[in-house]
Amino acid sequence: MLACMAFLLEIKAAEDILTNSDKGFRYKYLGCYNDEPSPRAFTQMYYNAKSQRFINWKIKGYNLKKVLDTCAAHARDKGMSVFGVQYYGECWGGGSSYNRYSVSKNCLEGLKNHWVGKDWTNAVYELISAECEVNGMTYKNGDTIYIPQNPIQYNDISCQECSCDKGVKNCGQTIKCDQLRSFPCEKVIPAPQGSCCPTCACYHKNMTYKDGHTWINRKPNVCYECTCVSNQATCNIMACAANCPNPVYEPGKCCPTCHAGAPATEAAFTIPETTTRPPPVLPPFPGFPGNQKRGLKLKKRVKRSNN
Question: Which intervals of the chain are annotated as region Disordered (predicted)?
């Protein structure tokens, strides 16, 4: 009774064994099943991985993964979703009755729960061909994959464009994100899922700009005129005149207005110091009506006192 229960638990555990192939797709171990000469559980032996000498029988704990990867890859190419490995390396597939016969214990276990069938026994696997797993993320069949997904996090402003093809990652061109190299970006927006290049936010000196707004970013020896388009900053270097006499800078413009002639100004002069004090002006002041006679009397008094 205990042996029977242990055997059933072994079959249940087989459903949870997933293997990642060297090409990026995955397959799941379904269990070990008997086979018969007629009718066969699988209808076709589509490849013989045993002839490739993938197994080194002299090493204890046989590494069977190369055999499994080979059978899985050929099954995928032929559009088979389920395949069996029989007699240590024969790849069988086709039909839908892999469990036509009873469960068997006649399978060989290699390293890391990798199984192959012995004579008249199939170690059965199912391809999980609709998904690709890349850098901890799962992609569906037909999805575009960018590696790295977010170039800024990897300090590299470029990525490789790949696709998920029935569980296999196929990579092609490398995309360069040159737009962020052409001008200094103060706030980078990471690339969203399904995109390669990050973008630059409409942001300058702690201020966020809306679509259509413009601003300048003045740096030593260079100046950028920027515009917000679709919530992304686009900036261009402005080439200003090398020799600009009397430059006048205006807000919102990189290049100054040049004035050929200097503004007219008077020559500077110094007021000389005096050594004599002017005579005091005593009231009543000249020019006041009715005070002429009083002014004459005061002058006579001052003259007498001086004599």
Answer: 279-307
